[in-house]
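TICKET: design request
STATUS: open
ATTACHED STRUCTURE:
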């Protein structure tokens, strides 16, 4: 029973807690360092700023405004703008905004995407891009938070849960961009006393981290279920703390967990 309980608490819906998944970040192609696209997101709307080069090799200014479609891609118009010389006082009358083509941002997962854009009368461009990493984020510390989610596909249908919620205290030990260990100590009335640990090497993509093939174990009243593999995705710092999602299998079930915690 305790093994089953420890498995069930590791559950939540995959993806962002509300609205569309966030792709706000700096994106580039590692094999073509020197150009890229910055993405700013407002729910299901993306504003893209291109830093690329024209036929003369000089910097060229384009932006795009793209909206989420039913396939999970973002599509919209590509714009060229001109304005006042930067060293002069801004003159609104000199601003021009011209629609010059189309752009599409097509995510393949949380970390990679395909960028497709075409200027009217010009060749289409298709680029494979990923989030560009700048500096490490400090995630280590102590936090408190909650989880929510579901458990599906259990061998025993009685173990399936459409809604799971719990509260926890969290300690994160981080070694730069190399590895992290997350220790969840559950404190709500239902799961009080269960401690779960997730650990593994970090992979850094822009504002996000992931741990593929992480190991986790849960203990309760001296019982330790076996070490199990899990994937931690979309692990990142927030203004108040940390947030992430992991998926794992235990007790014959498939669980995912979305957690969010604040520093304290």
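STATUS: resolved
RESOLUTION: sequence designed for all positions
ATTACHED SEQUENCE:
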């Amino acid at each position: 029973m305790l093994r089953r309980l420890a498995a069930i608490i590791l559950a939540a819906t995959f993806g962002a807690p509300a609205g569309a998944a966030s792709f706000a970040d700096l994106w580039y192609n590692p094999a073509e360092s020197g150009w890229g696209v910055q993405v700013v997101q407002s729910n299901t709307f993306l504003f893209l700023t291109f830093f690329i080069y024209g036929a003369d090799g000089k910097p060229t200014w384009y932006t795009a405004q793209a909206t989420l479609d039913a396939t999970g891609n973002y599509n919209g118009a590509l714009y060229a703008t001109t304005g006042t010389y930067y060293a002069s006082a801004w003159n609104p009358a000199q601003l021009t905004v011209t629609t010059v083509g189309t752009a599409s941002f097509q995510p393949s997962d949380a970390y990679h995407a395909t960028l497709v854009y075409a200027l009217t009368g010009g060749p289409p461009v298709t680029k494979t891009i990923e989030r560009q990493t700048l500096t490490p984020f400090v995630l280590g510390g102590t936090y408190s938070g909650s989880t929510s989610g579901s458990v599906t596909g259990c061998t025993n249908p009685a173990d399936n849960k459409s809604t799971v919620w719990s509260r926890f205290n969290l300690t994160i030990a981080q070694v730069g961009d190399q590895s992290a260990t997350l220790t969840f100590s559950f404190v709500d009335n239902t799961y009080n006393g269960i401690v779960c640990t997730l650990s593994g090497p970090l992979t850094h993509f822009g504002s996000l981290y992931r741990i593929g093939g992480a190991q986790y174990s849960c203990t309760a009243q001296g019982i330790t279920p076996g070490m199990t593999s899990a994937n931690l995705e979309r692990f990142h710092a927030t203004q108040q703390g940390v947030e992430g999602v992991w998926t794992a299998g235990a007790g014959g079930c498939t669980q995912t967990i979305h957690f969010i915690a604040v520093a304290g």
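CLOSING REMARK: Confidence is low (pLDDT under 50) at residues 1-17. The chain is about 5% helix and 60% strand.
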